[in-house]
Inverse folding.
């Protein structure tokens, strides 16, 4: 069974601080996706990383895929209150017939003014 | 693009009744749709994978006779919770897989089901 360990589970910081969320697995994934979810809503796709070592930037968010495609990180620079939400990483493996996403448990981020 | 809708957004039903939730891909065709369940402050739990024109594939521990899935067209999948019980109360989310790019999944806004 493939597992994605996501850490930290909870993170409460002040506006302006930096933070990093980690997603680790012993399995190799074809790609890895990061989502952000707000209460009472569905997850919204932020980015997909595919190539080992790949780095993608989305404004103040930097996503990195590990060289071995087993881990990923999300770094937020100068966090804002609008960044508050649940961040989910999800690995995709086409090895199975369905190509399902394997979700981490999520990181609940709270950015205080 | 890649918008997925769900209806209803909230539903309250009595124990023993059935509830149908619709998931639609509004601007793309999705041969595969997924149904998830999410408990408070928890991550998403995959319930089943729905392929257009064929039977759904259920994850281990999910009762297929209780959670009926129909994927009648490339833009619509339905989940029917039959004989609902209070423990079925949850947040149900569907997603649709795009046929382009890396096959990312796009999620609906979710349906909050409360069984009284």
């Amino acid at each position: 069974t493939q597992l994605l360990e996501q850490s930290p589970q909870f993170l409460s910081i002040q506006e302006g601080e930096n933070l990093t969320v980690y997603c680790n697995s012993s399995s190799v994934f074809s790609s890895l996706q990061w989502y952000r979810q707000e209460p009472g809503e569905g997850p919204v796709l932020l980015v997909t990383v595919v190539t080992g070592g790949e780095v993608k930037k989305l404004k103040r968010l930097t996503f990195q895929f590990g060289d071995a495609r087993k881990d990923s990180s999300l770094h937020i620079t100068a966090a804002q209150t609008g960044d508050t939400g649940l961040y989910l990483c999800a690995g995709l493996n086409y090895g199975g017939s369905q190509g399902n996403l394997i979700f981490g448990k999520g990181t609940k981020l709270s950015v205080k003014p | 693009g890649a918008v997925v809708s769900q209806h209803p957004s909230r539903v309250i039903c009595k124990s023993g009744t059935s509830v149908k939730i619709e998931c639609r891909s509004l601007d793309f065709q999705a041969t595969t749709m997924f149904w998830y369940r999410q408990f408070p402050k928890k991550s998403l739990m995959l319930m089943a994978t729905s392929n257009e024109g064929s039977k759904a594939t259920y994850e281990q521990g999910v009762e297929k006779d209780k959670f009926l899935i129909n994927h009648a067209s490339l833009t619509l999948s339905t989940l029917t919770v039959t004989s609902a019980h209070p423990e079925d109360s949850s947040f149900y989310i569907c997603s649709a897989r795009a046929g382009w790019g890396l096959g990312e999944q796009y999620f609906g806004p979710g349906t909050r089901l409360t069984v009284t």
Observations:
- Residues 59 and 108 of chain B are 20 Å apart (CA to CA).
- The first strand of chain B starts at residue 4 and ends at 7.
